[in-house]
Amino acid sequence: MNAGVSLDIDAVGALVGRIAAEVKTSAQTRRATLSISGKLQEPVIRK
Prior knowledge:
This protein is mostly beta strands. The protein has strands at 2-9, 15-24, 29-39, 42-46. The protein is elongated.
């Protein structure tokens, strides 16, 4: 598995960012990009 994250948190705790993940097996490679939003206390991750 390989993953990278870009995340900004502002002064009031709002989140904006993304996760890029890749999972490899001998037969296939799966990739996904997920968005991060919401607040620091209540993050939301979406495909």
